[in-house]
Amino acid sequence: MVDTPKIQQLRSYLNLKAKITASDGRIFIGTFMCIDKYKNIILSQTEEFRSSEKRFVGLVMIPGKHLIKAEIEDLDLSPQYT
Amino acid sequence: MDPKMDSGMILDSDLNKKPFELRARLKPEQVLWIMDRLFICEMTWHTGHSLSQTLFTCMYLHYVPELTPELFLNTDDTSNDSLDQTSNDSLDQTSNDSLDQNAEAPIEFVILVLKAYVMGTVKCCQLVLDEMAKGNVYEEEDFATNKYGISIYEDFPESQAIKLLDDAETWLEQYGGPWIRLHGDEKSESIIHAIVSRLSLRKSFLLILMHMSQPRCLQYTQAQSQISIAMKLLNGSQSEISVNNTQDLGVEVEGAFDPLINRKLISQTPPRPIRLLSLQESIDEMLNMFKSLNSICEIIDYKSATSLTRFLTYHAAQQPTPCAFSRSLLQSTVCTENRILGKISIYQLVKDSVTELTNPPYIYFASKNEMDVLSNGARIDEAKYNVSKLIHTFVDSTMKPLTDYYRILCHNRSRQRRNMCKVLADWDLLQEESEHIDIELQSITKEEPLKTDEGQSYSFHLSSWVYHHKLMLMEEILFLGFELELYGNHEFVMIYWYLDYLLGVHYQHLERIHIHATDDRKFKKQKNFQSAPSSLSTVSLIISYQTFVMARQDICRGIHRIITALQKTGHFKPPQLEFDDESTRFWHRFKVYRTLGSPTMLTFQELKEMTQLDNISTLDLFNVSLRNFQSARTSIENLLSMKPSDTRMENCHAEFTKDLRAMLRVCIANIVNLLKIIDEFKSISEPNKNQDNDGESNKKGRKQQKQRQQKNRQQSLTISAAASTSSQSQSIAINKVVNFDFKYHPWFPVVTLK
Question: Which of B471, B486, B501 is the last residue of a domain?
Fold first, then answer.
């Protein structure tokens, strides 16, 4: 199995809170569970936000081709999540 | 993005959708449309779709409490004087906005009529959900109970909903009706009728559900009278005010239903494709439900245990399958908290059932009080005490298999078969157990065996009863395979042959019961017991069972023989399957029977030996098969002439007769076809004779000509082979195929050559 520094970095993000922006402007906030070569991302305990509308969607897969931006919480900067 | 996979996506249709306006002042036609659509949604839900795709799509359903006069207070329309009127509870529409055709409809159409209807529907939904919560039918298989966390006004009492419906009806009569007449066109009378009929139907349905949800079946009579009212309202004759006479009057309200509401609800599974029923289909669906409910009300009138069992069997076989709700309700009715039909104890049921079939000595099931009377106040001796103890053990172990069997009959057809296979082992175990009890009872009662040709024979009253039930289950499992289309055509011989065997065993078993039930010596003993059950009813029941089993056996035998014969003539060819092994298939088909203690499992070798029949000519085989169908026909005709009380069919005589008639048709159709086949076969094997019969009938003549032509062609092709008759008969086979048609009875086909 290949184990490059990039992969190691991605692995270190697992189980952290992630904020994904999709191409239609929706934002998903959930726990980062999984990613593959095509940037398909799986989040658990996800909440979906569309402007002010919010709903719980649970375990979701966000197709890589609709991915605009992916953010991961920084444990050092966000002590409120610890 | 894929809208199927992503419920949060914004669709084009979302953008163009007309928003829902709660405050819209609906015209009566519009209210009517919403009512109908809601009704359609409700019945679609009953056919097994989820609430989120049916009832919950109605936007009004989510805002019922907000439908109040206050809702319309702040509307900016000041053109109308109804504002003042709404503040007064009593309305007098006739005077002011009279001649104006476009006058806005009174808000009562929404806040009273529609509100009452929606609330009534919600309450019906609630009562149905309460019943389904008992878990009698498999969730998500027949019925969807997920409420998606949406409140359906659980705290709102049903009586209040009834009151609302009453109010709506009164208002409609006094004010709404006149208003419609004043502002409407020639259709106004029909519209009034339509709304009134729907309101009353809703009220009746709600009342039915309320009555039927009462414990211990106490209010079934009231429910039954409401059912007959509701059925009239639903499907009245031309002149009556009913729903089916007032269709297509509604005017669509855009935005009132949002089929995409399920996108907003959390669900574990993606929504299934759905097609809402049409209004007529919904009416039919509800009618079927009412019929089922009505028959449930009728079985409360308990006649006999056998009759109850038979009713359940026929109810289970109904086509179309009774809806999930009525099946659940039937289960609750038949058995709740160890009470049968809300009043009979299991002990009584088992006692009745055993007594009706095997007529055991009176002492078996005599209660303490009765025994006191019998023994004229003398002490109950130890023997009697032991008998009663043993019987109670028997009843305790019977309880579960018997109620399970009743429950199984309330499931959907495929589930029935599956679960029957599962419980078969329980019955086998019960049989073994009851045999031990029987032996102990024999020693206590000092029963003397009957002398028969095959040696001594003890009565085995209890285990005989169990065995009878087990055999019924075994037969039913195989028969259901035909109905559920589990077997391939080439397996029919095997299955019908096995059924033939099982039914034969069953017949012999009944014969045995018959001998012991009519054992004279027992009556001598019983003479001094007053109110001893007469054995006459037992005898007539056994005779009816025997005739029935025999009829079935004859049909099965006829069918497997005719197929074997056609196999010999080459008309029926089993498919040549590369990965198919007949003996393995045989093993799989009868796997459940392998573990049973009785009857003896037949082997594949036996099947081969029994169905090869090389020593019998094809023509004889046809003739034997013909005789089988003829004797089945006689048996069925005998059964048809029996009284319902003799066959213990009091609760389901109509269905029983229908079943028999279907079997009779199968027999007759097969006899006719067989005669044709035999005729054809004879004409082929004796070609010289056939030329004389030319003028018989046009159709036949043509057929024969065709056959002859083909024969000639064949003959010219293979002159040497054509000399023997056998190859001639096979040459005909080329253009004819066997066809199995289950058009009359789901278990027995009509065999035709086409």
Answer: B486
